[in-house]
Amino acid sequence: MGSKSSSLNKIPNAQELMQETGFSAAHILRLYERFEFLDVDQMGELRPEDFGAIRELSMNPIGDRIISAFFSPGKETVDFASFVRILAHFRSTETNRTRDGAQPEPANSRTRKLKFAFQLYDQDRDGKISREELLQVLRTMMEMQVTEEQLQSIAERAIQEADLDQDDAISFDEFRKSMEKVDIDHKMSIRFLS
Amino acid sequence: MPPKRKSNISINIEDVGMEVDASDSGSEVEARRKAKNRRAKPQRKAKRVSDDDDEDEEEEDEDQSPRKRGRKKKAKPRDSEDDEDEEEDNRNVKRKSSKASRKKAKDESDEESEDEREKKKKGASKKDKEESNKEKGKGKGKQGKDVGAEKDKKKKKNRKLSSSFEEEEEEEEKSDEESLSEGEMAALKEEVEEKKKLIATLRNKPWRMKRRLTLLKEAQDFVEKFEGALGKGKGRKLFAFKVMMAKKLIKFKRDFENFKTACIPWERKIKDVESHFGSSVASYFIFLRWMYGLNMVLLGLMFGLVVVPEVLMGLPYGSIPRKTVPREEQATAMDYSVLSDFEGYFKYSILFYGYYNNERQIGLLKFRLPLSYLLVGVGIFGYSLMVVIRTMARNANEGGDGGDEGDFTFSWKMFTSWDYLIGNSETADNKYASITTSFKESIVDEQMNQKDENIHLRRFLRVLANVLILLCLGGSGYLIYYVVKRSQVFANMNKDDLTWMEKNEVEFVMSLLGLVCPPLFEAIAELEDYHPRIALKWQLGRIFALFLGNLYTFLFALFDEVNAKLESEKDIKNATILALHEYAANYSSFYNTTVVPPQNVHPADVIRGPCWETAVGKEFVKLTVSDIQVTYLTILVGDFLRAVIVRFLNYCWCWDLEAGFPSYGEFDISGNVLGLIFNQGMIWMGAFYAPGLVGLNILRLLSSMYFQCWAVMCTNVPHERVFKASGSNNFYMGLLLLVLFLSLLPVVYTIMTLSPSFDCGPFSGQEKMYDVVMETIDQDLPAFIGNIFLYATNPGLIMPAVLLMVLALYYLNAVSKGYQQANIDLKKKMQMARDEEKNRRNNKDSTNQVMKDLEDLLPNKSLIPPAAEEEPPPPDVVVDKGSRSPKVKPGAAGKGVHLQRDVSLAAPNPRDPVTRDLGPRRGPPGNAMGPQPGPGKGRGGGRGGGRGGGRGRGGPPRP
Question: Start and end of every EF-hand domain (chain A) (predicted)?
Fold first, then answer.
C-alpha cells in the first residue's frame, strides 16, 4: 500500500462499501486518501492517536469521544471499512437516491445521525443520558468560571426540558424530540462528503 | 486534453444529479406512489377510500401515506437489524416505497393493459440503456482514474502535514476526478424515461387539470435537467458548462457573503467582547459602531459641503479680519495653554463658525456657501432624525419573531452549540467563553421566569424604590436650580470678591451629583429586583433624567453668555459705525470730496465684535474634549490602575483582593451608553457653531472603540449576572431620539430668533440667519417659486396641514393596532397548529407502542377488538408486525421504560383519539355539507363522523 493508489481496485471491498454506505466512488477514493494520510505507519489501520492529527478534533471538547466512536468496543484500531461506515453518518441527506440494491435505513438518515450523536453523550451505553453524563459534558464545555452549582442547575434544567417520562435521564426518544426542530441533517453533514 | 474534459463533465453531472435528485425525487416518487395507489385501490379493502381528485382528499392521502409506506415496507421480508425505530426517515421510506411500488406494479401487471405495455417498454429500454451505459462508464472510469492519479500525486506534494477538514473541502472543490457509477447512471436514465412516458401519457390519465399541470411541469423540469446529463455531444457539453457556471456562482456567492462579513468594521472585536462579557456589553459596542456610522455621514455632509469648499475656494487666512488673529492676541496665539482652550489660532480657524465668510458665492463654481452652511446645519438634524427613526422601526420589526424557541434552550445549547469546524485554539477559547456566557445568560433568564414570591411585597418594594428615586431626582433638580440661581447672583458681583468655591459651585455640584446619584440609584434598584435587562433600562432612564439637569444648567449658562455677548456686540457695532461715519465726515471735510476711499487698516487691527456663535461653538468643543479626557482618564485610573493594583498587590496583601473588596471593575453599561448619547447631543448642538466638532467626534469614537475594547478585555470582569441584551437596542435609540429632539430645540431657536453677529460667520450682515434662504428664493429662483413659498407659509395653509397630519397619525395608529391584533391571533393559531401536530405525532407514537406491546403480550397476535370490528386485518401483516416488533426495542432497559409509559398512555388513547377530537371540526358528521361522492368512484361513505374516526391519522398501519 505504499504507493498512493487512487483506483478503486486497491481499496478492499470498495464496491460493497459503496453499496452499503451510499458513497460514490469518488467519495470512497477521497476517504481512502484521507485514511492513508492519517495512517502514519501505513498499517492499514488507525489508532486513536492518529486522529489527534486532526486539529478540529483535538480542539473539540468532546473530541476524544468522537474519536472513540470510531472504535468498536474492545478494539484498538479501526480499519478502512469501519472508518467509512462511521463517516457515512455524516453524509449529507440530500444526496440520497433511489438505488436498486435493497437496503436498510442508510447511516445518514436523521435517526441514525441523532443516534450517533446520542451515543457520544451516552457513555455507558445504557440507552439514556444520565445527569452525571450531562455534567461531564458540561464540565468539558465550560470555562472554569462556572460554579459547580450552576453546572448542576444547567444539567437539571436540560433534563427537565427533555425528560418526558420523569426518569431523570434523557432517553433516545426524548433526545430526538428535543432535537426535533434542530436541522440535524444540515448540522451533521460534512460538506466534502456531499 | 480530451480525457480530462470528459472527467470534468462527469463530475459535474454527478453533482447535479445529486442535487436535482434530492429536490425532485421526492415529488416524483410521490407522484408515482399516488399513481400506484390509484390503480391498486379498487382491489383493496372496500372501506379504503380511493383518493379522488378532490383537494381535501389529497390532504387525507398525505395522512394515509405513512401507513401505506409502512405496509409496503412490511411486505418486504428483508428489513435489517438496524431498523430500530418505527418512525423512519422520510426519504428512506420514500425510496423504499417507490421500490416497493415498482415491484408491486409488476405483480399487479394484469390489472390494466396499458400499464402492462408501459412496463414492458420500460424494462426493455432500461436494459438497453444499462448495457450501453456500462460500456461508457467503463471507458470514462478508466480515463478519469488516470487523470485522477496524476492529480493525486501533485496534490500529495502540496499537501502539508497539518491538513485539516477545511483544506479537504477546498481540495474537493478543485478536484475533478469523479466519475459516475454505472448504477447511478442507469437509475437516472430510467427516471428520465419514466418522466418522458409520463408526459406522453398524461393526457389519458383520469386526473384533474390542476394536478396534471403540476405533474407535467415537474416532469418537464426533470427531463430538461437530466437529458443534458445523459445525452451526448453538444447538449451534454452545454449542460456541463451550465452546471459549472452554477457551481461557480454558488461559490462566488459564498465568498461574497464572507467578504461582506469581513467588511463589517470591528465585527471580530465585538464578537470577542460578546463571547467573554455577554451580549449586554456587546450591545454597547454595537451602539458605538452604529454611532460611528452615523457620524461618518454627518462628517461627509459637513466637510464635503461646508468645510472643504471654504478651504479650497474661500479667501485664505489673514485676508479679512474674521480670518485673522487680532493684534493683541498674536503674541500668545500659539501657546499651548491658549490653544488647549481653543483660543488663538484655533479660534480663528476653519473649526469655528466665525471663520466663514458671508460672500454669497465663492470660487469658480459659484458655490453659495452661506446657504449651504444653513442647509447643512439643518440637514444634519434631518438626516439624524430619519436614520434614528428608521433604525428604530427596523429593530421593532425584528423583535417579534421569537416564536417558541424557549422550549429546549438548555438541551440545544448543550448538544448543539459547539462549532465542529473550529481548529484554531484561540477561536476555541472564544467559543468556550461564549458557550459559558450564553449558559449564564440563560440561567439568569430562567431564574427570573421561575421566581414566584410574595407579589405584594414585591410591588410594595417597587413602588417604594420609585418614590425614593423620584425624591432623589427632585432633590437634585432643586439643588441644580438653586445653584444656578445663586451663580447668577454671583455673576453680577465683582469677580475678585468671590471665593473659588463660589465661582465653581455649579460645576462642583453637577459633578458631585453625577458621581453620587448613579450608584445610589443602583442601590435602590436592588429593592425592585427586576431582571437585569429591565433593571438596566430603568437605570438608564433615571440617570438620563439626572443628566437632563446637567444639560439644563449648561444651556442656561450658555444663553446668559450669549445674551451678554449680544449686548456688547450691539455697543461695538454702534461704535464702529459711528467711527466709520466720523472718519468719512472728517475725510470729506478735509479733502473736500464726497468720494471716501475705504480705510486701509490691517485686518489684525480692525475692531471686532465678540462673535457669540464662535463662543458657543467653543464651549461645545471644550466640553467634548473635556468629556473625552474624563472618560479616558476614568478608564485608565478606575479600571486599568485598579486592575493592575488588584492583580499585583494581591501577592502581598492581607486579604484576597481579586475575590474580596476592590476586585476588578465591571463594565458600566448604563454610564457608557448615556455618555455616548449625551456626547452625541453635544455634537448635534455644537455642529452648527463649530463645524470642526464633527471631525473631532469621529476621532473620539474611533479611538474609543479601540481603547474601550482593549480596556474591557484586559481590565474588566464579566458581570456577576450576565444577561442577554434584548435583540434590538431600541431603548438606546429611544434615548438618543429624545436627546436629538432636545438638542434640536436650542439650535432652531437661535437660528430663528437671534440675529447673527455683524462681523463674523456666513450670515453676517443679515437680520436673521434664515434670510439666506429668502434671499436665494428671491434672487436665484423663478418668481413663482417665491410665490409658492409665500402661500406655503400662510397660516391658513399650515393649520389644515397640521390637522391632516394629526388625522393621518390617528389613522395609522389605528391600523397598526389592527395589525398587531392580527399578529397575535396568527401567532396563537400557529401555536395551536403546532401543538396539534405534536399531539398527533405523539399519539401515533404511543398508539403504535401500545399496539406493539399488546401484540407482544398476546399469544395469538390479534389486535384489540375495536380495531378488528372496523377492519379485520389480514393475518400476514400481523405476523410481519409481530416479527418486527422485537427489533423496535433497543434493549431490555428501554423496554421497561416504554412499558411504564405505555401503561399511563394506554388509557386515554383508545386507538384514534385525535381524529375523534378533530371530527367535528373537519366538517359536520354524516357528511351533511361535504360534496356527495359518487359511489362508482369507490369512495365509500362520507368523510365526517364515524367514518373519519375509523380511518384516523393516528392509527397504526392497517391494510
Answer: 109-144, 150-185
Chain A / chain B CB contacts < 8 angstroms: 211
| Residue numbers in A near B19 (CB within 8 A) | 94
Instruction: Say if B446 is an interface residue toward chain A (CB within 8 Å).
Output: yes
pLDDT tens digits, one per residue of A36-65: 888 877 777 888 788 877 777 777 777 778
pTM assigned to the model: 0.64
How many helices, marked H, and strands, marked E, lie in chain A? Answer: 11, 4
Superfamily of domain A12-89: EF-hand (1.10.238.10)
Residue extents of the structural domains in chain A:
12-89, 106-186
Assess contact for B166 and B190: CB atoms under 8 A.
no
Contact yes or no for A157 and B168 at CB 8 A: no
Shortest CA distance from A166: residue in chain B = B901
- Comparing A12-89 with A106-186, is the CATH topology the same? yes
Question: Which residues fall within 8 angstroms of residue B790, CB to CB, at 6 or more apart?
Answer: none
The residue of A33, A50, A55 whose CB has the most chain B CBs within 10 angstroms, and thus the best one to mutate to test that interface, is A55
Spans of chain B below 50 pLDDT: 1-179, 401-404, 861-959
Among left, alpha and beta (phi > 0; psi -120 to 50; other), residue B209 is: alpha
- Interchain pair A29, B418: CB under 8 A: no
pLDDT for B133: 47
Interface test mutation site (partner A, options B16, B145, B411, max chain A beta carbons within 10 A): B411
Q: Which residue of B has its CA nearest to A127?
A: B894
CATH of domain A106-186: 1.10.238.10
CA gap A193, A185 in Å, rounded: 13
Q: Which three cell numbers stand for residue B248?
A: 461557480
A186 touches chain B (CB under 8 A): no
pLDDT in tens, B575-620: 888 888 888 888 888 887 777 777 777 877 777 888 889 988 988 9
**Interface contact A142-B435, CB threshold 8 A:** yes
Three-state secondary structure readout of B556-613: HHHHHHHHHHHHHHHHHHHHHHHHHHHHHHHHHHHHCCCCCCCCCCCHHHCCCCCCHH
